[in-house]
Amino acid sequence: MIHIKTPQEIEEFKVAGSLSKAVLRRAGRMVRPGVTTYEIDQIVESFIRLHGAVPGFKGLYGFPASICASVNEEIVHGIPSNRVLQDGDIISIDTGATKGGWVGDNAWTFFVGTPSPEAKALCEVTLDCLKAGIEQAVPGNHIGDIGYAVQTLAEKHGYGVIREYVGHGVGHVMHEDPNVPNFGKRGRGVKLQAGMVIAIEPMIALGTYKNHTLGNGWTVVTNDGKPAAHYENTVAITKDGPVIITQDAEGPWCSFQGGE
Ligand code: MG
Questions:
Q1: How many angstroms separate the alpha carbon of residue 32 from the centre of ligand 1?
Q2: Which terminus of the chain, N or C, has fewer Cβ atoms within 10 Å?
Q3: Which domains are present in the chain?
C-alpha cells in the first residue's frame, strides 16, 4: 500500500531529511586513509543521538550498525568493522535518521584519497544516474520512467545495473511501497502522484551487475570483484516537481572527496 503524504507532512518530513543529509556529511568528513569503518559508524551514531534522533538502520531487519559501509567491490549493506580504509578505495555510506516520526534515507560514495580513474568515472556517472532518476519523479510519470532513465545512462557507459536491490517508498518506516528499481521501461509500473515520497538509489557496478552475499549474511559484493557505486536521496513528488527531502543548508549533494 502506498502512503500519500500531505504537503504539511512533507514539510515535517524535511526535519528528518535535513538531519540525514547532515549525518551523511559528517560521515564523509571522516573518510580518509587510516580510519576504520567502525570508527565512522560510532561517530555517526553519536551525532544522530546528539540531535535527538534515532539511527534509521540500527536494528532494521537486525542490521547491527548506524551506517552501511561498503568498500570497493561491496555494493550495499557492508557492516562497519576494523577494516582500515586505504588510499584509492571508494566507500559507499548509506545512513539515515528517524526524527519526528519520519525516516530519512540517503547514501553517497566517497573517495578515500585518490581513486582509480575508472572508479572516479563510475561514481560521477552514478551520481548523474541519480539526478536523471529524480528528474523523472513527477506526477503522471511512472516508476518505470525512473528506472529507464537510470538504466539507460548507466548502460550507455557500459556499467552494470544492480537488479536485486532497489529504491523504495519511505515515510514513517524505512521501506514502504512502491519498489523503485534502477531499471525499467517507460510508462510501466505504478503511476506517480503528488504526495508520494520515494528513495531513489542507483547501485551501479563498473563490470557485471551479478552479485552475491558474503557469509555474514549482509554484505553484497560484485561477482567480478570490480567496484560499485551507490547514491541516494529521499524525494517527495509534488505538483511543483520533485523535492529532495534529504538536503540541508548545503544542499542535496555531498563532495566526492572524503576527509574534508
Ligand atoms: Mg534506501
A1: 24
A2: N
A3: 7-244 (3.90.230.10)
> pLDDT digits over 122-144, tens only?
999 999 999 999 999 999 999 99
Give the Cα separation of 183 and 166 in Å (integer). 9
Beta strands at 203-205 and 176-180: parallel, antiparallel or unpaired: unpaired
pLDDT at 152: 98
Q: How far is the CA of 74 from the centre of ligand 1 (A)?
A: 16
Residue-wise pLDDT for 82-105, tens only, equals 999 999 999 999 999 999 999 999
What residue type is assigned to position 79 of the chain? Answer: I
Helix (H) or strand (E) holding 167: strand 167-169
Question: What sign does the CA torsion over 201, 205, 211, 212 have?
Answer: negative
- Give the separation between CA 66 and CA 24, rounded to whole angstroms: 11
CA of 68 to the centre of ligand 1 (A): 11
CA-CA distance, 14 to 9, in Å (whole number)?
9
| pLDDT at res. 184 | 98
> What pLDDT score does 16 carry?
98
Which cell numbers in the block locate residue 228? 560499485
